Amino acid sequence: MPKVLISADMEGISGVVHPVETNPDRYDYERGRALMTAEVNAVIAGVLDAEPSAEVLVANAHGPFRNLLPEDLDQRVRLVRGRPRPLGMLGGLGTGMDAVLFVGYHARVGAGPAVLAHTMSDAVLGVRLNGREVGEIGLNAALAGHYGAPVVLLSGDDVACAELRELVPGASTVAVKRALGQAAAEALHPAVARDRLRQEAAAAVARRAQIPPMSITGPVLLEVDLYAPATVDTAMLIPGVERAAGARTVTFTGHDVAEICDVVQLLVLLAQVKPG
Ligand SMILES: [Zn+2]
Fold it and tell me: Which pLDDT score, from 0 to 100, does residue 275 have?
């Protein structure tokens, strides 16, 4: 019985272009949640069209990790909800996962123009793995690869799609909108996007064996540029984290990508802490 993980972010959902649709305290958040839930349901349907016996796990991976409407989600899956948690946006991943799908993902900080481009938090100005610029797409594709799972499909804007294809040649991508700026896009109708996603998800899962997992073998050098020098000061308290030249960059050498992703998650949490 194949095991499939769907990691669902929000900025790359069709119709979503602005923080008022993605932030819990803003006026259009409930609409964003409904669009996100419906789009994830379309992907679940596609996965199960291809593999009716698949065990499907959905990792809610935006903001507080509590945006998907549990009662409206397809009943055939289990939902990984809430944070902080092991493996962050890929909560529930482990060895033996046959395919991973990224839904509603977005481009990295500095890319673009791209809709709502950022990397984990506005407190992060850049992330590099072994010198290569990565965002959430690269970090999570590498984390999936560490556990032997290929990322077979990504949906988001056209820039996010290109970002995955560069890292995982052969992966399917569905551009549900064309970026016109950080908060502007030309988007498919959500219903059209869902039809296309259902088809593409089925096709991608069916040919998962042809898509190699992204592979970064350790040790891995992590560099993170942080907005606030005070966050750098706090980060220096983590064993192994060092300050690079300049006040805003920290480095960490990890044994593998899993360790690196834990440190990135911790740095993002530290960035939310006000110096006391
Ligand atoms: Zn997000």
Answer: 66
Are 187 and 200 within 8 A, CB to CB? no
> How does 224-235 read in b/e, with b if 16+ C-beta sit within 10 Å?
bbbeeeebbebb
**Which of 176, 148, 153, 157 is closest to 165 using CA atoms?**
153
Centre of ligand 1 from the C-alpha of residue 174, in Å: 17
Contact 177, 186 (CB under 8 A): yes
Q: How many domains does the chain have?
A: 1
Domain of residue 91 covers 3-120+142-210
Residue 118 is a catalytic residue = yes
Give the pTM: 0.97
pLDDT at 246: 79
Residue of 62, 106, 118, 146 marked active site: 118
3-state secondary structure of 100: strand
How many angstroms is it from 24 CA to the middle of ligand 1? 12
What CATH number does the domain containing 47 carry?
3.40.50.10780
Share of the chain above pLDDT 70, in %: 99
Q: For residue range 235-272, what is the model confidence (pLDDT) as tens digits?
A: 999 999 999 977 899 999 999 999 999 999 999 999 98
Ligand 1 centroid – CA 223 distance (Å): 21
Is 256 part of any domain? no
CB-based burial, 138-160: b 16+ in 10 Å, e otherwise: bbbbbbbbbbebbbbbbbbbbbb
Q: For all residues of the chain together, what is the average pLDDT?
A: 96
How are beta strands 99-105 and 172-181 bridged, if at all? unpaired
> How far, in Å, CA of 15 to CA of 36, rounded?
10
Task: State the average pLDDT over residues 140-165.
Answer: 98
